[in-house]
Amino acid sequence: MASKNVYIVDGSRSPQLKARGRQGPFSASDMAVQTARPLLLRNSAAAENIDEVILGCMMPGPDEANIARVVALRLGISQRVPAWTVQRNCASGMQSIDSAFHNIKSGLSDIVLAGGVEVMSHAPLLLNSHMVNWMGGMATARSPMMKIKQLSKLRPHFLKPVIALIRGLTDHVVGLNMGQTAEEIAYRFNISRAQMDEYAVASHQRLAQAYDNGALDEVEVLYDSNGNFYAEDDGLRRDSSVENLARLRPAFDRNYGNVTAGNSAQITDGASWLILASEKAVKKYNLSVLAKISDTQWAGLDPKVMGMGPVHAMTPIMQRNKLSIDDIDYWEINEAFATQVLGCVAAWNEDTYCKEHLKLKKAMGTIPHDRLNIDGGGISLGHPVGASGARIILHLAKLLERKKAKRGLASLCIGGGQGGAMLIEREEKLEQQ
């Protein structure tokens, strides 16, 4: 009979490195390999018995088709172990954990290496369709005269590149980029610029305090080919202040908006991994346990307000497990935008939204600020799209261990109008057999 319990054994993540207008020092597979290697070395019993590798990634490089397999082989994992890549926009890393959870729960696997990676600084510049068609014409021109004729058709605007990152952060179904969907939420819940900036400053302050207190031991040091090392998230602004942020211009609605680069998630490179195992494997190989995955949920909603996805995904988990807000010790809601997190908090505290959109009889209640994203989030450390879901689950598990707390809920909004959530619980070390 398949084990009913699925455990997080251990995990690691890279420092998240801010994109600075040029390609960062690591490819996606390089970052994923360097982040996973120390994790596997300190968990050798689990590493030797991995059943599959699952990795979330939206934009692997041109030499990284099925990047999960590329990384697995580079890590020295047996060729017999299958590896596959998943994509669910901002929640690709959470999807990998969810896929591993269900495979272990059903008995298909006992130990899975799962996580996410995204190197957003390497997002490609693409040829536009005019240039692609022109190049096709050149390739099929057989005679010198035909080539000259085709060459004469070349126009300057054919050379204008398609910026993949901008296109990828735009929902073409509703015609809005992600920042504009955040503005929709700000308008709906009357969230002011001052509130957004205050939240952003708090994110930087909390991340700084976490580093100062040694609360981020999941971060592994990375080394590039030039001998440079990277030990911390480099987007942290210890000098961040409401006064400084107030000087920034709106980034998505120049005339009337309040969402800026300062109160939005940073564009970053990052990787995060977790080792998941069945109860049978934990006992058999004497594995440590960080937390147990108790429940997961995916939800869909209007893409125009995709940032509300967390409340749509968290609500069914709360109902199914008969939990109140007081039953959750700590919350991780990915900080895509300050107004998006504030909007989720406001929605759960509003009777109208809860009745009309979540089918509740009344408001769920208020998530306490001192239990939400207490060590910072995407605004201060960045949001590498494929990795963030795995990062927040790992950090929440570490946080529960650090605080000796019982239960945590991690959630993300997802471009395209979805939300994902995962409930985890801390357990004492299982009795070994």
Radius of gyration from the alpha-carbon trace, in angstroms? 23 Å
N-C termini distance? 17 Å
Low-pLDDT ranges: none
Number of separate helices: 16
Shape: globular
Outline the biggest β-sheet.
10 strands, mixed
Short characterization:
By secondary structure, the chain is of the alpha+beta class. The chain has helices at residues 28-42, 44-47, 67-74, 92-105, 129-140, 144-151, 164-168, 178-189, 193-212, 242-245, 279-284, 309-320, 338-348, 351-358, 378-381, 388-403, and strands at 6-13, 17-18, 52-56, 83-86, 111-119, 125-126, 162-163, 170-171, 176-177, 222-223, 229-230, 268-278, 291-300, 330-333, 407-414, 418-425. It has a domain at 126-164.
Please explain how this structure is put together.
This protein has 433 residues and is of the alpha+beta class. The chain has a domain at 126-164. Helix content is 37%, strand content 19%. It has 16 helices and 16 strands. The protein has helices at residues 28-42, 44-47, 67-74, 92-105, 129-140, 144-151, 164-168, 178-189, 193-212, 242-245, 279-284, 309-320, 338-348, 351-358, 378-381, 388-403; strands at residues 6-13, 17-18, 52-56, 83-86, 111-119, 125-126, 162-163, 170-171, 176-177, 222-223, 229-230, 268-278, 291-300, 330-333, 407-414, 418-425. The strands form 4 sheets. Strands 1, 2, 3, 4, 5, 12, 13, 14, 15 and 16 form a 10-stranded mixed beta sheet that branches. A two-stranded antiparallel sheet has the order 6-7. A two-stranded antiparallel ribbon has the order 8-9. A hairpin with a 4-residue loop joins strand 8 and strand 9. Helix 1 crosses helix 3 and helix 8 (178-189) packs across helix 13. The chain is globular, with a radius of gyration of 23 Å. The two termini are 17 Å apart. The mean pLDDT is 95.
